[in-house]
Specification:
By secondary structure, the protein is an alpha+beta fold. The protein has ten helices and ten strands. Strand 5 and strand 6 form a beta hairpin. The chain is elongated, with a radius of gyration of 26 Å. It comes from Paenibacillus mesotrionivorans.
Length: 269
């Protein structure tokens, strides 16, 4: 018998590790049938067969196969060289999105030998009595495992990289830093400066520096409406350590000083 451990019943959501384990070489077979979850298998040794979608896949040492939810499958070991494998089960919309970035699909449920050893990445949370903090880490370790498949088996038809979206995300996570510079964003996105500027302008209608200011002022407006923070604290929270400079930038953007803006919106509420 193999070793396995189920963490929890999966909820609806993004990406959730459910169970995993190790199966020593034996004649265990499964199906034909359907599962409700994704089940990723990695063959340590031996070989076997996966039948799905009317296609027979011969799978051997170092290769992987994926069972898709609600898809009929039948898999079984070679009687002469039964396979030994590890597996992990998971669910969630993020799982579907990540797998779409790999070669794995219903029409291609198996992939060849990876450039590196994948077995260690499958050891996520198999042991009975797993601690709560280990359960919490299981989803993170699942992402690490799937990142290997994105690296080793990338989809040849993957969508082009959204550099403008990457730049926006960087700004929205780092806007509070006074030291934030356009050069930091260019370096984080890792493309040529003028090319990023053109893509960003096309996507947002703004320059990169203009978007930084626009996002900061938008956040300041929220804080002035909904918090009791002082003007100095609001300024500090959005990346301005000089309250006077913040007030000048805010008034230029909104036609009101921060104090006047706060009073106006208090009267409206």
């Amino acid at each position: 018998m193999g070793r396995g451990y189920t963490v929890s019943r999966y909820p609806a959501g993004d990406l959730h590790y459910l169970a995993g384990g190790y199966k020593p070489a034996n004649l265990h077979r499964w199906g034909p049938g359907v599962r409700e979850v994704y089940a990723l298998h990695y063959i340590i040794s031996g070989r076997g067969t996966l039948e799905t979608g009317g296609v027979i896949n011969q799978i051997r040492e170092g290769e992987s196969f994926l069972i898709f939810p609600h898809t009929e499958v039948y898999y079984y070991p070679d009687p002469e060289q039964p396979w030994e494998y590890v597996w992990n089960e998971f669910s969630g919309e993020e799982a579907r999105q990540l797998l779409a970035m790999t070669k794995l699909g219903k029409s291609c449920p198996a992939v060849g030998t990876a450039p590196g050893e994948l077995r260690p990445f499958f050891q996520i949370a198999w042991n009975p009595g797993v601690k709560p903090y280990e359960r919490l880490r299981s989803d993170a370790r699942l992402r690490l495992l799937l990142s290997c498949y994105l690296e080793f088996y990338p989809c040849e038809e993957a969508a082009p990289t959204d550099y403008a979206g990457m730049a926006k995300a960087y700004i929205e996570h780092h806007y509070w830093k006074p030291s934030l510079k356009v050069s930091d964003i260019v370096q984080a996105v890792n493309i040529e400066r003028s090319y990023l500027f053109r893509l960003f302008k096309e996507a947002t209608g703004q320059s990169v520096s203009g978007y930084i200011t626009w996002f900061r002022i938008g956040r300041a407006r929220e804080l002035l409406r909904s918090s009791g923070l002082s003007i100095q604290s609001v300024a500090y929270s959005i990346g301005y350590h000089d309250p006077l400079h913040f007030s000048r930038v805010f008034k230029k953007a909104t036609s009101h000083s921060p104090t006047a803006f706060r009073l106006l919106h208090r009267q409206e509420s």
